[in-house]
Amino acid sequence: MSPLRPRVLAIAEAANPEWVSVPLVGWSLADALRRRADVHIVTQTRNRDAFLRAGLTEGTDFTAIDSEAVAAPMYKLASLLRMGSGKGWTMVTAIAALGYPYFEHLVWKRFGADIRAGKFDLVHRITPLSPTIASSLAPRVAAAGVPFVLGPLNGGVPWPKGFEAERRREHEWLSYVRGAYRLNPSHRRMLRSAALIIAGSRHTASEIPAPYQDKTVWLPENAIDPARFNLTSAQDLTGPLRACFVGRLVPYKGPHMLLEAAAPLIRAGRLVLDIVGDGPMAGDLRAHADSLQIADGVTFHGNLPHDQVQQVLAQANLMTFPSIREFGGGVVLEAMALGVVPMVVDYAGPGELVTDQTGYLIPVGARPQIVEGFRTALQALADDPHALPVKAAAARATALSDFTWDAKAARIVAMYDRLLAARQV
């Protein structure tokens, strides 16, 4: 074992290469770190088989912790209280926060002696991502004289003004009192005990209390795997513009606003739109396309396997994504990696990933302002699309240089090294 490679115990309760969202983030980051450090991953037993299928060796590369005695009933409770698949994420996080301490209790029971004995240079909790879920491990690890790294933490982006109806349709009742987590003494102990806090968004970084800002760094939550996004958009400007939306068909993602914004150009035959994804709004969106007389110019693909999503997206000039409450925005990076120019609302995750050089930022506002912003930007591009290839090349270069999982892991390992070097002074 090379002394130049830090020995890391990576806590990733949610980590799975075969799933999406938080589990895929947890897996992708932990796996990328393995290529640059001596990492042993600790995950929940539900991920065990996927780890084995990915080629990892149990006991050597990872340990699966069986916390199902608490996790299973908590999952059932969250499914009941969220009142609909894909809704009530604040409720899901709150219920997870109740069951998570048992997982960390079992982690400490299994690895506490090894941590105290100095078998790891540091402990890094990768998931949960939510900053509301406290860690009982943090003070124990710190007391053992081992640095505890936390993050990327992300979540809790406020709902923009004018979208209360969408908030209610998402069953986000608990979001009104989300800030109460700051009163939890365990949360303060976690932040106090952490040697490094990685914030996955600027909003989350701003929520870290002032006494801990000096050990907080901003590093976007999401990244991409170049092997999974290996096509390149041709940016064909000879025909009508082609725009693409990829995501769950739910109110806060804004697909209804996109239809309204694009309708004049679609009716005129100057733009076609692909919508990839499914969700509770699917039927209403198809009916809305009919009422706007644009059904012939809109293709609803439904849910597609990953390789087919890439094929559809890579045919587009633009990734049009009017989501008004996106924590990370991984799909935006995926589009950029394919050379598809993103057009996003300048708010939360996507607004932190896109610049004027790599895409189009539409000012956040109430629904009519966002619709008009997208409509104006799309009209300008239909009139003169020649800026698209330049932005597409810049977007692809940025994604492949700054936003791969390997690049992200390299930055984190550099943080490890600085942290460990400072402790030796």
TrEMBL record:
Protein name: Glycosyltransferase family 4 protein
A GO term, aspect molecular function: glycosyltransferase activity
Pfam families: Glycos_transf_1
InterPro entries membership: Glyco_trans_1
Signal sequence annotation: none
SUPFAM superfamilies: UDP-Glycosyltransferase/glycogen phosphorylase
KW Transferase (keyword) present: yes
Organism of origin: Paracoccus nototheniae
Domain of life of the organism encoding this protein: Bacteria
Glycosyl transferase family domain mapped to chain residues: 241-379
EC number: 2.4.-.-
Keywords for the protein's UniProt record, in alphabetical order: Glycosyltransferase, Transferase
